[in-house]
Amino acid sequence: MKKIEHIGIAVKDLQVSNKIYEKLLGVPSYKEEEVVTEGVKTSFFQVGPNKIELLEATNENSPIAKFIEKRGEGIHHIAFDVEDILEEMERLKQEGFVLLNEKPKKGADNKWVAFLHPKETNGVLVELCQEIK
Q1: Which residues 6+ apart lie within 8 Å of 42 measured at CB?
Q2: For the residues 40-51, what does the mean pLDDT come to?
Q3: Predicted confidence band at 1 (pLDDT cuts at 50, 70, 90)?
Q4: How big is the CA angle at 90 (ends 83 and 111), to the nearest 5 degrees?
Q5: Alpha-carbon distance 101 to 96, whole Å?
Q6: What is the mean pLDDT of residues 14-38?
Q7: Which of 21, 47, 60, 92 has the fewest CB atoms inside 10 Å of its own CB, making it the most exposed?
Q8: What's the whole-model pTM score?
């Protein structure tokens, strides 16, 4: 793993939260996009090398909707930038971690993504990210 890629925060209302984070971070969102397959709209902020991803559910079956229903708004996941997502997924499987998806899938911000089960990582949902070239 190369670095923390971003921290994902589940929110009820993306537009309201965008205003909060614009004031908090002193910069506007640099990108908003919808990931239809995950039932989520995202908004990204960058401050120096650090990124924050706000996530709003687009339907009640979305993982974000379920997260907010169970835990409320807040930190949803931490994402790590990896050089080779397939290699990293295999390494982590060999280490005994449970992957939530067997193959990487297209995520937001032009990334291939895969997730580790939070029961294996002290309750933290971990996302692996690799830039799509």
Answers
A1: 14, 31, 32, 33, 34, 35, 53, 54, 55, 56, 108, 109
A2: 96
A3: confident
A4: 40
A5: 15
A6: 96
A7: 60
A8: 0.92
23 Cα distance to chain centroid: 22
Question: Distance between CA atoms of 55 and 40, rounded to whole angstroms?
Answer: 6
Could you tell me the domains of the chain?
A: 3-131 (3.10.180.10)
Average confidence score pLDDT of the chain: 96
Q: ∠ at Cα 54 (48, 60), nearest 5°? A: 170
Burial 71-98 (b: 16+ CB within 10 A, else e): eebeebbebbbbeebeebbeebeeeeee
Question: Which whole-number Å values give the CA distances from 35 to 22, 68, 88, 97, 98, in the listed order?
Answer: 22, 18, 23, 26, 24
Q: φ, ψ for residue 66 (rounded to 5)?
A: -65, -40
| Residues 18 and 95: beta-carbon distance below 8 Å | no
